Amino acid sequence: MTEQVHADSIEFGLDTFGDVTQAPDGGPVSQAQVIRNVVEEGVLADQVGLSFFGVGEHHREDFAVSAPDVVLAAIAARTTNIHVGSAVTVLSSDDPVRVFQRFSTLDAISDGRAEVILGRGSFTESFPLFGYELSDYEVLFEEKLDLFTELLNETPVTWKGTTRAALVNQSVYPTTESGSLRTWVGVGGSPESVVRTASHGLPMMLAIIGGSPVRFLPYVDLYKRAFAQLEQPEQKVGMHSPGFVAATDQEARNEFFPHYRDMHARIGASRGWPALTRLQFDAEASPEGALYVGSPETVAKKIARNVEALGVSRFDMKYSAGTLSHESMMNNIELYGTKVVPMVRELLAAVPASV
C-alpha cells in the first residue's frame, strides 16, 4: 500500500536527451546548437520554479549530449535553485571514480544542487565505444554500482572486483561540502533491479515510458518490502515519463505525435518495434497510458492521479522528443512550470488522507 502524498513536498522535474531538433526551415539543427538550446531550456526550468533538470547520456547521431555533466555545469552557473543531474549516467561503461569526481565537481559549481541518476543504459552504443562487452552487461553494472555506493561515503575506499583495478584505502576528491551526493538508480521495471537498488540503500527512479503507470505499483511495494527485510530506512521513489503540454489536448497531440512517431521508428528500427499508429499514440496519451500529452488541466490531472497511485515523491517529465523544435519545448517548459505544477499541487492537497 502506498503512503499519502504530501502536495507541498513532492518535486517536479524535467528530463531531456538533447534530441537533435528541427529548424524552422525543416532542416536539422546542429548538435552544437542543440547543446546551447538545452542550456537555455535548463535556465527556463529554473525560472519557472521547477525542482530538477536532468540531461541524459547518449553516443549516437540523433542525441547531442554525450557529456551531461559538462552541459549541467553550464546550466548550474546560470541558475539559482534548481537541482541539476544526469538522466541517466550509463555507469556500466564508465568508471565509478570518474563519475563521482565529475558530479562532486558539479556539486561544487552548483553550490550543492547536483544529482546523479545511475543506469545500465537502454542504448548500448557506449559499450563498444569504450571497449566493454555486452555479454558483461549485468556484472559491469552490479560491480560498478557497488563501488559507487562505497564512494558515496566520502571516506577512504578499499574495494576489489573483476571489472576495474582494485582500490586500497584510496581517497577520492573532490568531496562534497555536505558530505552527500544525491544519487538515484534508474529502474526500467525488473524485480531484480528493484531489489538491487534497495540493497544498496539508494532512491529509485522508475522509467515509465509505455503502458499503464499503475502496473508499476508492485515494484514500489517490492522496493519497500526489501527495505523492511534489510531493516533499513526506506528511500524515495520517483518516476520519469514522456510528456508535452500545449493550450489544448488536440493541439498538444497533433504537434507532438509526428516527432514522437518518427523517433519511435528510428529507435525501433534496430529493436524490431512495429510502426507506431496514431491510435496507439492516443491510447498512451489517454488517462490510462504513459504519455502526459495535453492541455495543462489534462496533464495535471494525470500526473496527480499517478503520483497518488504510486506514492512517488518526484515526477520528471521527459519533454524532448526527436525533432520537436526548441521553441515548442520552451513553451512546454513554461506551461509545465507555471500551469501544470500548481494544478497538481492543488489536486494532491485536495485528496483526503487514507484511513
Describe it:
This protein has 355 residues and is an alpha/beta fold. The chain has a single domain, classed as Luciferase-like domain (TIM Barrel), CATH 3.20.20.30. Helix content is 42%, strand content 16%. The chain contains 11 helices and 12 strands. An 8-stranded parallel barrel has the order 1-2-3-5-8-9-10-12, surrounded by 7 helices. Strands 6-7 form a two-stranded antiparallel ribbon. Strand 6 and strand 7 form a beta hairpin. The longest helix is centred in the last third of the chain and has 24 residues, at 326-349. The N and C termini lie close together (12 Å).
Total tally of structural domains: 1
Tell how many strands the DSSP assignment holds: 12
Shape: globular
Secondary structural class = alpha/beta
Task: Please list the strands of the largest sheet in the order they lie side by side.
Answer: 1-2-3-5-8-9-10-12
The sequence of SSEs as H and E is EHEHEEHEHHEEEHEHEHHEHEH
Indicate the mean pLDDT. Answer: 95
Write down the CATH topology: TIM Barrel
Q: Between the first and last Cα atoms, what is the distance in angstroms?
A: 12 Å
Low-confidence stretches: none
How large is the radius of gyration? 20 Å
